[in-house]
Amino acid sequence: MTARTTPARALVHAPGEALDVQPYDFESPELITGEDRDRLDAALEGWGRQLGMQITAKTRAVVDVATTPSRVQTFGAVIASAEGPTLWATARFGSGRALYRIPLAEASYWAARMLGAAGDRAGQATGITGVERGLARAAAAEHLAELQPATSGLLPLPSLEAFGAEPPASVDRDAQAVVVVIGTLRKGERRQLALALDVDVVLERLGAVAPKQDAAEVTHRIGGHLAMAPVEVALRFAPTRVGPDTVLDLAPGDLIPLAHPADRPLVITLDGQPVLSAAAGGNGDRLACVVVDSNGALR
């Protein structure tokens, strides 16, 4: 089993480098913007037109199609948004996956028309026969096969893996996908097909990933960021335990004897973790400490 490589979407910048930081909406991520989005939407619109011509040729009934602008959401959201009985074509898409969502009524109509029937009862379909399923699967495979030529090679050729009422459990519901919805209009009846493509594969094909950085340079820059990260440093005495009666009887001027021996160094903590030993001292008019030695916790 080969490990899947996810392309990096951002460079590791050098510490102190000026950055143009923009707000990010995690519920509606915009991983593809500008010219890349225009190029992708134009390519998918071309596939939608080809899809309409294929359906018209197969069913011998004119169908108008309208393609929505692409958006990014999870495969799980695409699956959950299906309305009514649905068939799913799952395909290998480069190093990722593609999902093609077909309403059961639409698949039944395709099969009925290919078998010579009128297809008038397809809208009432609640199930599908083995023959109809085979015809719908073949049609879905042909539609997906048009993705590469219709987009002028921008997107890879999907390879159909499964076809059924539910997507395989192997589809990662949390993975991000580029989703395009194709609306069909035939004799006043509207239905919606949808195609979800692994966003990492799409970004790779668009060339919208950051250039590969040298591993040593990345390590050096990350180390620089860590060195500049603020941390809390404190000087700590050994804990002293007292009873509630002592605390309740405290008054201004009272002394609390500490359990810390006078000849024992204090402990320097880094974000609550002991790292060094130190003696109390001063620096001008401010308190300070003099590092004595490491307690072995520092690496």
Class from secondary-structure proportions: alpha+beta
Contiguous helical run count: 8
Q: How helix-rich are the residues, as a percent range?
A: 25-40%
For the residues shown, what is the average pLDDT? 82
Q: Given this structure, which CATH class of the largest domain is correct? A: Alpha Beta
In the CATH classification, which architecture of the largest domain applies?
3-Layer(aba) Sandwich
Strand content: 25-35%
Evaluate the radius of gyration: 32 Å
Report the biggest beta sheet as strand number plus sense, adding barrel if it closes: 7 strands, antiparallel
Look at the structure and name the CATH superfamily of the largest domain.
Answer: CheC-like
Subcellular location: Bacterial flagellum basal body; Cell membrane
Protein name: Flagellar motor switch protein FliM
Membrane topology: Peripheral membrane protein
Pfam family, one: FliMN_C
